[in-house]
Automatic annotation (TrEMBL):
Tree of life domain: Eukaryota
Protein name in UniProt: Uncharacterized protein
Length: 90
């Protein structure tokens, strides 16, 4: 049975540290590439997500990630509103 944590369209298998032949380096590289391919360009954000997945806090990480996206969307909406307002010249 395999448990998979998903972010948007990204699927990351959880690290199985208890396995004797677990390859952490391979898992971390694969997870980082998947997150980068999903559009998470900031290295610090990818590292936070990977560390929190290792600590078993995937639900909290997902909620925090979407909360951050919501804040970014609000800011973008404010910028679009400001840029699309017409200025009448007299």
């Amino acid at each position: 049975m395999s448990i998979v944590n998903s972010f948007h369209y990204v699927k990351i298998d959880p690290f199985k540290g208890e396995d004797a032949n677990a390859d952490f380096q391979n898992w971390a590289k694969t997870a980082a590439r998947n997150l980068l391919a999903a559009g998470i360009a900031d290295e610090a954000q990818r590292a936070r997500i990977i560390v929190s997945l290792m600590e078993g806090r995937a639900g909290l990480t997902k909620a925090a990630y979407y909360a951050e996206l919501d804040r970014a969307g609000t800011t973008l909406k404010e910028f679009v509103t400001v840029n699309t307002t017409k200025i009448e010249r007299s």
